[in-house]
Structure to design on (496 residues):
C-alpha cells in the first residue's frame, strides 16, 4: 500500500491503439479520466481496427517506444502504469527494462493476447516474455483464456475452476491477480481478487450480473485502467476493484446509446458523469457579477434619470415628497429586515447566517433612525404602504416563502447594490448648505459599502456553483427587485 494516495493520480497507459476509440489507449485515456486520474499514453502498436475486428497491426521501431516512455518518465512523476497490448517479444522486453529502470509505484498489467473479436494482439513467441513480466506487476488482470496461458494449462470452464487456476498463478508468479469471469456463459459475472496475504492465497470475490449487450469492446482495457487509477487514489486494491467494477457495469449499460459501430460496440466511459454532473460549464463569481450588473443596466439608467433622484441631488426636491419617501422606506425596512432574517435562517454556513442576521438588525436600526431624524413615529400611523412599497415587499416575501436560499440572496441584493451605487453618486452633491445633507452623507457609511460587497460575493458565489436553472432564477429575481427599486424611487413624485 502506498504511503500517500493522490487526489488526481498521473496514470500512464502503455498500449496499442484503436482508432474507433473503444479499446486500447483510447479507452484507457477515457477510463483514467472517468475514474478521476490524469491520463498519459505511450503507443506500443498501431492497430487498424474497429468494433468488428482487427484489420492489421503496425509496430513502430522499439527504440521509439522507449523514447516515448523516457519522454514521460524524465518529466512527469508517474503514480501508476497500466500496461495493455505489447504485440511482440521485443516490446515486452523493452517495457520490462524501462519498468526496472524507472520503478513506478503501481503497475497494473492487462495481459492482452487476443481481442474480443478473436484476433491475436500478442505474438505467440512473446508469451514467455509476458510470463517473465508478470512478477513485476502489482496486479495482473487476465480474462479466462489469458489466465490459462499464464498457467500454461487448459482454459477453465467454470468459475471455481478459474479461481483455482488463479490461485496457482498468483502463487507461481508471486503476484496479485484480478481474474475476470466475462468469458464464461451465464447470468452471473463475477470477478475475483486473488493475492498472497501472510503466505496464504486469499480470494475476494466481486459478484456481478451480466448485462445483456454486445457493447463489450474494450471492457478489459477500461477495467485495468480504472483499477490503476482508483488504486493510486485510495491505496486499497479491494476498494479499487469494487468501485471499478461498479463504474464499468454502469458504463457497459450505457454503451449502446453511443451507437458506435456495427460489431461489439464500446462502453460509455462518461455515462455516469454525464448523468450526474452534466456537461454544462460554470461561470466564475466575477463573471456572474458583471453579467448581472449589465443585465440591470437599463433599469439603473432609468433610476438615474428619475426626477426624484435628480431633485434630491440638486436639493430642489419638495420636502413633503422627501418625508413621504422616507416614511415608505421605514415601512419597507421593517419587512425587508424580516426577509433578511429568513435568509439568515436558510444560510448554509454560520458566517452567512451571522451576516444576514446583522443585515436584519441594521435594517431595523436604520428604520429607528429615520423616526428620530425625519419621520416621527406618530406620523407613521397615518402612512399606508404605497403601491410600489407593497409590490416590492410582496415580491421579496414571496421569494422568501418559497425558501430557496440562493434565489433569496439574489432578490435582496438590489437593495444593497443599487442603493450603494446611487448613494455613491448622490454623495458627491452634498455641501454644507444642502437641505438633505445629513441624508446624502449617510451614504458615505463604510460598513454599508462592506456589507454590499459581502452580499454580492455571497449571491454570486452561490450562482457560480448552482445549476443553470437556479442561476437563471437568481438573475430573474435580481432583475425583478431592481425594477421594484426603480418604482420605489419613482413613487414619491408619481404616486403621492
Ligand atoms: N456483459 C457484461 N456485463 C457486465 N459486466 C461485463 C460484461 N462483459 C464484461 N464485463 C466485465 O468487464 C470486465 C472485463 O471482462 P472480460 O470480458 O472477462 O475481459 P476482457 O475484456 O479482457 O476479455 C470484467 O470486469 C467483467 O466482469
Ligand atoms: C489496442 C488494443 N488493445 C486491447 C484490445 C482488447 O480489447 P478488450 O478490452 O475488449 O479485450 C484491443 N481490441 N485493442
Amino acid at each position: 500500500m502506498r504511503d500517500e494516495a493522490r487526489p488526481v493520480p498521473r496514470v500512464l497507459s502503455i498500449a496499442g491503439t484503436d482508432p474507433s476509440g473503444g479499446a486500447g489507449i483510447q479507452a484507457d485515456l477515457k477510463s483514467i479520466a472517468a475514474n478521476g486520474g490524469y491520463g498519459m499514453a505511450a503507443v506500443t502498436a498501431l492497430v487498424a481496427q474497429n468494433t468488428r475486428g482487427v484489420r492489421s497491426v503496425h509496430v513502430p521501431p522499439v527504440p521509439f517506444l522507449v523514447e516515448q516512455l523516457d519522454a514521460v518518465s524524465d518529466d512527469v512523476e508517474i503514480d501508476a502504469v497500466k500496461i495493455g497490448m505489447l504485440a511482440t517479444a521485443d516490446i515486452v522486453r523493452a517495457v520490462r527494462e524501462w519498468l526496472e529502470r524507472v520503478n513506478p509505484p503501481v503497475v497494473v498489467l492487462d495481459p492482452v493476447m487476443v481481442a474480443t473479436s478473436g484476433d491475436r494482439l500478442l505474438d505467440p513467441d512473446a508469451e514467455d516474455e509476458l510470463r517473465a513480466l508478470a512478477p513485476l506487476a502489482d496486479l495482473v488482470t487476465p480474462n479466462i483464456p489469458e489466465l490459462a496461458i499464464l498457467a500454461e494449462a487448459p482454459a477453465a470452464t467454470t468459475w471455481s475452476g478459474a479461481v483455482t487456476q488463479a490461485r496457482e498463478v498468483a502463487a507461481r508468479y508471486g503476484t496479485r491477480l484480478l481474474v475476470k469471469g466475462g468469458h464464461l456463459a451465464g447470468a452471473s459475472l463475477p470477478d475475483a481478487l486473488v493475492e498472497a496475504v501472510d503466505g496464504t492465497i486469499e480470494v475476494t470475490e466481486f459478484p456481478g450480473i451480466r448485462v445483456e449487450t454486445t457493447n463489450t469492446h474494450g471492457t478489459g482495457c477500461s477495467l485495468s485502467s480504472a483499477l490503476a487509477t482508483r488504486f493510486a487514489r485510495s491505496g486499497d486494491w479491494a476498494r479499487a476493484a469494487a468501485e471499478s467494477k461498479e463504474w464499468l457495469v454502469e458504463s457497459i449499460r450505457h454503451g449502446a446509446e453511443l451507437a458506435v459501430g456495427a460489431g461489439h460496440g464500446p462502453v460509455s466511459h462518461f455515462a455516469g458523469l454525464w448523468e450526474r454532473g452534466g456537461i454544462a460549464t460554470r461561470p466564475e463569481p466575477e463573471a456572474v457579477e458583471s453579467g448581472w450588473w449589465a443585465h440591470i443596466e437599463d433599469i439603473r439608467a432609468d433610476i438615474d434619470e428619475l426626477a426624484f433622484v435628480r431633485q434630491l441631488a440638486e436639493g430642489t426636491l419638495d420636502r413633503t415628497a422627501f418625508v413621504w419617501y422616507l416614511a415608505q422606506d421605514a415601512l419597507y425596512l421593517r419587512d425587508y429586515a424580516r426577509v433578511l432574517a429568513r435568509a439568515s435562517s436558510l444560510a448554509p454556513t454560520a458566517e452567512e447566517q451571522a451576516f444576514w442576521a446583522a443585515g436584519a438588525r441594521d435594517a431595523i436600526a436604520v428604520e429607528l433612525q429615520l423616526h428620530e431624524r425625519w419621520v416621527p413615529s406618530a406620523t407613521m400611523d397615518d402612512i399606508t404602504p404605497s403601491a410600489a412599497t407593497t409590490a416590492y415587499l410582496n415580491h421579496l416575501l414571496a421569494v422568501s416563502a418559497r425558501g430557496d436560499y440562493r434565489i433569496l440572496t439574489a432578490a435582496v441584493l438590489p437593495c444593497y447594490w443599487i442603493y450603494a451605487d446611487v448613494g455613491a453618486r448622490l454623495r458627491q452633491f452634498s455641501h454644507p448648505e444642502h437641505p438633505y445633507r445629513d441624508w446624502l452623507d449617510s451614504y458615505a457609511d463604510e460598513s454599508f459599502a462592506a456589507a454590499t460587497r459581502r452580499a454580492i460575493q455571497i449571491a454570486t458565489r452561490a450562482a457560480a456553483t448552482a445549476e443553470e436553472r437556479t442561476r437563471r432564477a437568481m438573475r430573474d429575481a435580481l432583475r425583478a427587485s431592481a425594477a421594484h427599486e426603480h418604482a420605489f424611487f419613482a413613487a414619491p413624485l408619481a404616486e403621492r
About this structure: Residues 116, 143, 180-183, 189, 191, 208, 210-211, 213, 216, 219-220, 223, 245, 248-249, 252 surround adenosine-5'-diphosphate (ligand 1) (CB under 6 Å). The longest strand covers residues 191-197.
